[in-house]
Write a structure and sequence with these properties.
single chain, three-stranded antiparallel beta sheet, 508 residues, two-stranded antiparallel sheet, 7% strand, mainly alpha, disordered N terminus
Length: 508
């Protein structure tokens, strides 16, 4: 069946009215006299509609802010000069006091807590006496809801909380909203308290999702015709598990959390079990050469490898607003052309990488020629544009996909956690071989960390993870976006985004 038909219920969020107050006002589903709310939760489909609506609402936060836009600019991926006129300069400079940054931060904060508040209402209805939700769907609906609550809080913590360590874990971070319809101002918890609550939600979600159909029949992303919601054998709600916080994505979130908390032993154990199972079942196969190099519909997001992603029908509009060549100097681009010492692309992917599938995501455009150059030869200036999210012409499954977690991250966690250099090398090679690379550096104690960092940056560009990776490692120096051969000097204080004024002012 066509993906647009399969996921049309994502648009049903209009059945729910979200208010527009701060986190401290603690939102609830606003139904006139409770009649609409009671009706909505009177059958299975109502629960599905609410949950699908929350996934759909995530596009507000993760579209241009926590995936391919703001957060990646903060990771210094792109050529955004500090003293220029680029519209994203405020984010590249970490100018948190600027009105535009404050507006972005406030919107992110409020929208995220609105989603969390509505998740709490959904969970409350799942567990209500004589709930209309059937026993078949209860573990999936509640499990995904708990996982969503954990993920949203975790990303707020990673943005607004401290660089996590034994010295900072007691520092104030964010509130944790886990009580439905609570209008009281919730306390701001310490980073460790927030992590503990996230961990509990993820463990509970993992238990509920232990029989997730993804473990037995896979992601079910094939176009096999219309599957009505009430089809008892294979309902639509249980298909396309890559667009849901499925069992494996929950394990991935657990691993991310353990890494954030510095618990590499638990992260390694979690990821090892995950990789063993998905490898055996071939759940998330590596992208094929045919898919990655297709001329009509190239799969630049390597969709088969995505453990969890969003379905965003406006992805093409996001691409046009951020990466389109029509934006010229206002686009998010790499400095320099496709090759040469002044090219970030050549530095970014390294030597002997011309065959790398990931390099095919870029296109060089000559912007100007100075005809009065030396000996009349002219001087050309080039811009390298990202094509990762360019709209493909066919109705492909991945056409509207925004990846938020992929299997390569799990291999990189193995490489980071293990003390066995051969195991780390094998994990890195697994990624590189499946990117069409045949040469690799030997992993040593001296170069291991840098090799992992380089590969991580290449894998998650446009997916909002690199800034958090740098923050977790408290990195004070990393690759520059404005100069291909230099590094960016990072102030550790810039990793901690202040709580928005719309929140702090409401607490005074």
């Amino acid at each position: 069946m066509k993906i647009k038909n399969l996921l049309k219920n994502l648009l049903l969020i209009t059945a729910i009215s979200f208010t527009t107050s701060s986190c401290a006002d603690w939102l609830k589903v606003d139904m006139e006299d409770g009649i609409m709310e009671d009706k909505l939760y009177s059958e299975n489909e109502g629960f599905f509609t609410v949950l699908n609506g929350i996934y759909s609402s995530m596009n507000q936060t993760y579209g241009s802010t926590l995936s391919m836009g703001v957060i990646d600019v903060m990771a210094q991926y792109y050529n955004v000069p500090a003293n220029g006129t680029h519209p994203y300069k405020v984010y590249a400079n970490y100018d948190y006091q600027d009105n535009s940054f404050e507006s972005t931060s406030s919107s992110l904060w409020q929208n995220t807590y609105k989603m969390i508040a509505n998740i709490n209402v959904l969970i409350d209805h799942c567990d209500a006496p004589q709930s209309a939700l059937s026993s078949r769907y209860y573990p999936i609906v509640k499990g995904e809801a708990l996982a969503l609550r954990a993920m949203l809080h975790f990303d707020l913590l990673r943005l607004y909380g401290p660089i996590y360590s034994a010295e900072t874990e007691s520092s104030q971070a964010i509130p944790y909203l886990d009580i439905p319809n609570n209008k009281d101002i919730m306390p701001i918890l310490s980073a460790k308290e927030v992590c503990d609550k996230i961990l509990q939600d993820l463990k509970d979600a993992s238990d509920l999702l232990k029989d997730d159909p993804i473990r037995t029949v896979g992601v079910q992303a094939d176009d096999t015709g219309e599957q009505p919601l009430n089809n008892q054998d294979n309902p639509t709600f249980l298909r396309n598990r890559q667009y849901r916080l499925n069992y494996y994505a929950v394990q991935g979130l657990l691993a991310r959390l353990y890494m954030w908390m510095g618990n590499k032993t638990e992260a390694y154990n979690c990821v090892s079990q995950l990789l063993n199972e998905i490898t055996l079942n071939q759940t998330f196969p590596w992208v094929t050469r045919a898919a990655a190099t297709s001329t009509s519909a190239p799969d630049r997001v390597f969709s088969t490898e995505v453990m969890f992603g969003l379905y965003n029908t406006s992805r093409g509009n996001l691409f046009d607003a951020l990466f389109s060549q029509s934006l010229e100097g206002n686009a998010l681009t790499f400095v320099g052309g496709l090759s040469g010492d002044d090219s970030k692309l050549a530095q970014f992917y390294g030597t002997n990488s011309s065959s790398d599938y990931r390099r095919r995501m870029w296109e060089e455009v000559v912007t100007s020629t100075d005809s009065e150059g030396a000996e009349g030869g002219g001087v050309s200036n080039s811009i390298t544009y990202s094509l990762k999210y360019e709209q493909v012409s066919t109705d492909s499954y991945f056409k509207s996909m925004i990846p938020l977690m992929r299997i390569s991250e799990m291999y990189l966690i193995v490489a980071e956690c293990t003390d066995d250099l051969q195991e780390a090398q094998d994990a890195l090679h697994q990624i590189r071989w499946n990117r069409n690379l045949t040469t690799d550096e030997e992993v040593t104690a001296d170069n291991k960390d840098q090799l992992i960092t380089d590969e991580f940056a290449r894998e998650v560009i446009g997916e909002g993870q690199l800034f958090f990776y740098y923050k977790r490692h408290a990195m004070e120096e990393f690759a520059s976006g404005t100069d291909a051969t230099s590094t960016y000097k990072m102030l550790l204080s810039n990793y901690v985004v202040p709580l928005p004024k719309s929140e702090t002012d409401n607490r005074q």
